[in-house]
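Appendix B, Record 12. Input sequence as logged:
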Amino acid sequence: QVQLVESGGGLVQPGGSLRLSCAASGFTFSSYWMKWYRQAPGKERELVAGISTSGGSTTYADSVKGRFIISRDNAKSTVHLQMNNMKPEDTAVYYCFAGLGSWGQGTQVTVSS
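Logged structural output:
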């Protein structure tokens, strides 16, 4: 079955960086766009970034454009989200998603001084 395991979250100060990882299994990873979503307390889950099957195309929410970078390693079935110049409003649980209906447990990111 589809499994998505996110890691790399934590507490970071404003202006700092974190790199999230998502290990995928149970499907042909290289055949699917991969996306990162986030959900802050009391808010709906929102799309943060997406990457095409080859990694040649990416898309970002306006709120993270220029600060976050999504990448993937098809040989290792992993997708990453490099988050730079982080802001308190980036605080949320971050999830990766393959569009197959399954979600992982997410990883908590907290930006605070």
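The first strand starts at residue 3 and ends at 7.
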